[in-house]
Amino acid sequence: MKITQHLVVAFVVLIIALIIIPLPPFLLDFMFIINISISLMILLTTMFIGGPLEFPIFPSLLLITTLLRLALNISSTRLILSNGGDAGQVIKTFGSFVLGGNAVVGFIIFIIIILVQFLVITKGAERISEVTARFTLDAMPGKQMAIDADLSSGVITDEQAKERRINIQREAEFYGSMDGATKLVKGDAIASMIIAVINLIAGSIIGMVQGSMDIAEVISVYSIATVGDGLVSQVPGLMISVATAMIVTRAVSESNLNEEVIKQFLSQPRVLIIAGISVSMMCLIPGAPILQILPIALFLIFLGYSLIRKAKVVVETGVEDQMSQMMDEENNEVEFYRNIDNVYNVIGVEPIEMEFGYSLLPMVDERSSGNFIDRIVIFRKQFALDMGVVIPTVRLRDNGMINPNQYLIKIKGEEVAKGEVLVDYFLALDSGGNSEPIEGIETIEPAYGIKGKWITENEKEMAEVYGYTVIDAISVIVTHMSEVIKKHINELLSRQDINTLLENVSKTDPAIVGDVIPNIISIADFQKILINLLKEGVPIRDLHSILETLSDHGVTIKDTDMLTEYVRQKLKRTITRKYTDGNSIKVITLDQEIENIILNSAKKNEHGTYLAIDPQVVEKIVERVTEQIERVKDIIDRSIILTSPIVRIYFKRLIEQFFGDLTVLSFNEIEANIQIQVIGMIKLEN
């Protein structure tokens, strides 16, 4: 005898046993997950069937699932009242998620969920079942007469007539059973509400009388338990109620719900156009959200117009082979996008994209002897050596909607920079301002904003003699692209890049990677630290040192910003090389008064550390920083502000919204053998 033949019987006996036998929290969690899984399977099944007779055991399943939910409710109530509100991880998780840290608001949301389940879904499904059962029984005599008439006229055979009679009988029995089964769902919803009240009131009394908890702790514990217990019952109950309504309203469908919805909505394209126009009229209402209204309206109009146009093309062709070909192409497209993976390919965005006007295409097309791609490859190698990051593939596209000499640079699908170059011209830059004037088309170099002139090849030699820096058009684009990538590299560092970098380290030192990730720090926090470094232009090539630092400090420190500061100090040789000229560095320092203000203003909350400084003080600090930068701009090319180690991160956060590219270093990030030359000091009072 096979065990599977009695599996359902054993399951029902187990459900009854749950009412009597106390369950430990672990097994109760297991049964809750089974209950949710069964309810979800039932709901999905009702959506994929063509009619109710394809799922005739549904009324019996309603009884079994209702009995299971009640048994689990009783078991969970026993644990809540006898175990100090601890009824397993599932109940705790559901309750904590809905309460969201606020017991009052969370409990109100829970009550709303119960009311929606009881008054809308359950009551609606019950009413639909009653009406459908009545109409089905009333229509039975007429259907029987129609079968007899078809049999008498020879339209159907005896076997077909017999099959139709059986289907009518099964349909009547099904809806009759459904009429009664929905009462079980309604009763289950009422019982769940009563049990929730018992859990909260009785649990609170037991917690205060028999336990050692204060009233606030009692309310918190039993609120979570009550909400969690109610939800793990109501969520499966909600799915069963929806499945009940779904199956009784699908009586006349010939295919599954997904196909029917798409087919019937797209069969009336004029409706889509009228709906789109009507929705667009909402923009005339004062205060209406135009950014949300217009895309929806335009989409409906475009979809309706596309469907009408497609229908006209099919009608007007008149040639059978062309129609067949079009149908084949349409079917191929449908089949292609039936695979959901192919749809995901449509909505993806490229990390880096460049779009070019048609005049620039010969420069970037390898078939036209353009060497733009080769220059990108060289830049990728050099950037990896400098910063320790491999930039992703740059997607090149043509764009007929922009100026023919223009190009766009996009990061993750959004434009971040653009420029304009002249083909077969050279850009002459007078960086010193002392060169002889030359003839040319005035312009602004896109990467650094330097004034320049576009000159022809005949004028190139003379411009170099006069002291101009002459650059070809491709170099202008590549330089602009490289500066944009350097500025946004922290946005381009993906989780996959992190895994690849760690795999590369594991080839030579697998122990350090295994010790740190994920034992000491998660891969997500590790990514945040690397992004913090790249955001301020600190190379991450020395991953061994970074991982060693995290191994030393990550056990006691979990703040990624503080860990970043320790990593920066570990990488001080790299930082020193990047910002020093020989054995010296010219810096602007902070006055001790400003550092004390910043330290005293640092506050902590659950989201991290923030500065609570008077806006007038911030304004004064920004003014003094601006004055010092303007004062020393003729002495140094790049302003560097030097602070104490504990102040650096806070001052950087304070000032970066006003000076995004300003370099802020601490004393611990500079090698001891480097001579520090202070050329300015930022003080609140001059």
Automatic annotation (TrEMBL):
Single Gene Ontology BP annotation: bacterial-type flagellum assembly
Residue intervals passing through the bilayer: 7-24, 30-49, 61-81, 93-120, 189-211, 231-252, 272-305
A GO term from the CC aspect: plasma membrane
Gene3D superfamilies, per the entry: FHIPEP family, domain 1, FHIPEP family, domain 3, FHIPEP family, domain 4
Keywords: Bacterial flagellum biogenesis, Bacterial flagellum protein export, Cell membrane, Cell projection, Cilium, Flagellum, Membrane, Protein transport, Transmembrane, Transmembrane helix, Transport
Subcellular location: Cell membrane
Main localisation: membrane
InterPro entries: FHIPEP_1 (IPR042194), FHIPEP_3 (IPR042193), FHIPEP_4 (IPR042196), FlhA (IPR006301), T3SS_FHIPEP (IPR001712)
Superkingdom: Bacteria
Membrane topology according to the record: Multi-pass membrane protein
Role this protein plays: Required for formation of the rod structure of the flagellar apparatus. Together with FliI and FliH, may constitute the export apparatus of flagellin.
Family statement drawn from the similarity comment of this UniProt entry: Belongs to the FHIPEP (flagella/HR/invasion proteins export pore) family.
UniProt name for this protein: Flagellar biosynthesis protein FlhA
Naturally occurring in which organism (per UniProt): Acetobacterium bakii
